[in-house]
């Protein structure tokens, strides 16, 4: 699938220049699964002041120090076979700092990773060595969110294999299960004859006071288009040896 991101006019103007500012890649790992415990990194040779994320993961005008690391990342991958876009990020593990982070947080699997791209001149301005911006503007930065799918660790680096949240393989989808019987008819409360079962109130409660959730019951009521089951699931299987 194509990977599409939105950019503002300032970003586009700066990206066309052949001189001046340089692009910068920054990464924010969330060490918390349920809240926000951000770890800020930048692919620079010194720590720099960058833009801080709020609890919902949006870039704000507040600043924070990004730790400099020689981070490596591959390009965002997607294929014509419908494969979900993925990304690998490698962080040096020489001093075991990042190793302690993953060991203390269940290897961060399922946690969010924010990839932030922009130009150095639009980073925060200030008088310290960490302030390298010239015209600060947090709105010019692109932020993409991925989730850690797996982690590989050795003595030299920790590699995070990240994927989009759209990859729902092996994820249980809430409130829906695969069943041959109708989920609406068997739902406790407002199931049979409810809004999902009979949205137009066409079924006579006098003629059909109950329903066992079978497809035949829906056919009798001329309501098969509202059937809430999956009839392709077989009841039995025959094995020939």
Give an overview of the whole structure.
- The protein is mostly beta strands and 241 residues long.
- The protein has two domains: 9-163, no CATH class; 173-241, no CATH class.
- Helix content is 8%, strand content 27%.
- It has helices spanning 9-15, 97-103, 215-220, and strands at residues 23-30, 38-42, 48-53, 59-68, 72-73, 86-92, 112-119, 142-153, 157-163.
- A nine-stranded mixed β-sheet has the order 3-4-2-1-7-8-9-6-5.
- The two termini are 42 Å apart.
Uncertain ranges: 170-175, 237-241
**Spatial separation of the terminal alpha carbons:** 42 Å
Q: Please provide the count of β strands.
A: 9
Gyration radius (Cα, Å) is 26 Å
Provide the spatial order of strands within the biggest beta sheet. Answer: 3-4-2-1-7-8-9-6-5
Number of domains: 2
Determine the mean pLDDT.
79
Order of helices and strands: HEEEEEEHEEEH
Mind summarizing the main beta sheet?
9 strands, mixed
Principal-axes geometry comes out as: elongated
Number of helices: 3
Helix/sheet category: mainly beta
Strand content: 25-35%
Helical content (DSSP H or I, runs of 4+): under 10%
Descriptive terms for the model:
single chain, 241 residues, mainly beta, 2 domains, nine-stranded mixed sheet, disordered C terminus
In short:
By secondary structure, the protein is mainly β. The chain has helices at 9-15, 97-103, 215-220, and strands at 23-30, 38-42, 48-53, 59-68, 72-73, 86-92, 112-119, 142-153, 157-163. Helices cover 8% and strands 27% of the residues.
